[in-house]
Amino acid sequence: MNYTRFFPYGIVKFSQFAVESAINFMLSAPADAFYVYSNSVKMVQEFFHMRYRAPFPQRLHRHAQAACHALARPQPVLAFVSIYSAKPNFGRRMALRSTWLPLLSLESPKVVYKFFLAGTLLNESSNVDALLRQERDHFDDMVFLVGTNDEYPIGRKGFAALQWVAQHTDAQFWLKLDDDVYLRPRPLFDRFRRMQRAEAYWGAFDFSGRVVRDTNDPHYTSADTWAEDIFPPYARGAALAMSLDLVRQIALEDSKRPFKKILIEDVSYGFYIWQLVFEREVSSVTLLDHDEVHFAMDAKCCTETTHPNNCWLPLDKVTWIVHHASPEILRCMHQADVDAGYYRMTGAKNTPSVGVDDLIRQMLPYDSSVRSALNSSSCPRSGVDGISIASSWEGALPDLCGCVVTPPAHPGKPLQKGGLQELSMGPRLHAV
Question: Nearest 10 degrees: CA dihedral of 309, 310, 316, 322?
Fold first, then answer.
């Protein structure tokens, strides 16, 4: 019964009880683990309701359409990658272009990408915006979302990007990333190649996200928008994916009748999914939550022994996705993969694009981290000349811990906060 990684929590209450293990659980588990454990039955019920809400013929037709689309010729793009970036983040964008982004073109079926930024100002008062347009002309990999800005949280920008993707790609999946992510593309897209092509929502899920009611907090959500104290399940924003049928259905349904909106970007996608299933009853959705182990939500190396209750999703031998990586760390991690033989240099000489160093020097006054892009030789700045992926790699992935500085533990002060408890309505059965 490997439907969701929380299914064992739901049945263990009835099949595996030992006083010693219960005591160890209570002494070691963070607050959000208590919430997950106490609500696991409700979570599993909601998982099955979301997955099987639509009648079987409707689900079968939708999956058959997606499967036929995947087998079509010419073969459709496997994934469209949207990388959310703030305007001044020149250094992050350059770091991605010179590390893992060129590797996307080695994937089959194709994987394509764009950076998504807020709209530029059209007057001549903004040197940054003028430089951004030069950057776009040079690399041709940026989308400016007219009508959005670099506000925080970025829920409006996120929805504008989703609508753009719904209109502009025929890919099988949409993958959204932040611009401070180090990615190992091959194992991630191997996962996508094995994944269901319809009604799919993938990522490292938060099932216990607490709603903020403080009106002065940027994450404030009104009770009129969402009345419960815990958000519906959502994939955390470092990296998340949806099958394109869901992306288009969200855009289509909003055009018919606008969704209720939450400004917290990653929460908002889960909220749109929730409204599709529970309020509008127009779709089924499978939460694909088994790959959390492949996420490092912070660029650090630790264990529960070295950092009790402070070591949530660190770097590991199976990590595909590293969040909160600076441009220097991105380049270091890429070089570590090259040095370990995970990526292989073919011997071809990489010739930097004409004028790119001049463009980088213009970026320096606005983002000092772009300096690491000057004379960087870790990977070509465009294309994939000179590098390939090791075809026979087996076992643990290369160690990336040499690229990060792990802060000391915080004894008695766990990072997880809040006394999360079961909601007042208790476990909830949804009539199907």
Answer: 140
The secondary structure element, H or E, covering residue 182 is: strand 182-183
* Peptide bond preceding 232 in cis form (omega within 30 of 0): no
- Cα–Cα nearest to 310, from 175, 176, 170, 413: 413
- Report the Cα–Cα distance between both ends of the chain, in Å, rounded: 21
How crowded is the C-beta side of 137, counted as CA atoms within 13 Å? 8
Q: In 10 A of CB 383, how many CB atoms?
A: 13
Please state, in angstroms and rounded to a whole number, the distance separating the CA atoms of residues 276 and 272.
6
Task: Give the amino acid at 318.
Answer: V
- pTM higher than the cut 0.85: yes
pLDDT tens profile 339-384: 999 998 776 555 556 688 899 999 999 999 999 888 664 444 444 5
Distances from the Cα of 192 to the Cαs of 109, 167, 201, 379, in angstroms? 11, 21, 11, 25
What b/e string do you get for 273-284 counting C-beta neighbours within 10 Å, with b at 16 or more?
A: bbbbbeeeeebb
Confidence of residue 307 (pLDDT cuts 50, 70, 90): confident
Of the CA atoms within 13 Å of residue 350, those in its CB half-sphere come to: 18
Q: Which of 383, 379, 399 is nearest to 99 (CA)?
A: 379
Q: What is the largest CA-CA distance in the chain?
A: 70
Cβ(146)–Cβ(257) below 8 Å: no
Tokens of 427: 């476990």
Q: What is the Cα 151 distance to its own chain's centre?
A: 20
What are the tokens at 27? 């002494």
Mean pLDDT to the nearest integer, 30-40: 66
pLDDT at residue 310 in the model: 79
Q: Tokens representing 395?
A: 């076992």
- The strand pairing partners of 115, in sequence order, are 83, 142
Strands 142-145 and 111-118, sheet pairing: parallel
Is residue 1 within 8 A of residue 51, CB to CB? The reply is: no
Contacting residues for 303 by C-beta, under 8 A, at least 6 apart:
311, 314
Of 135, 61, 55, 57, the residue nearest 94 (C-alpha) = 135
The pair of structure tokens assigned to 407 is 């802060």
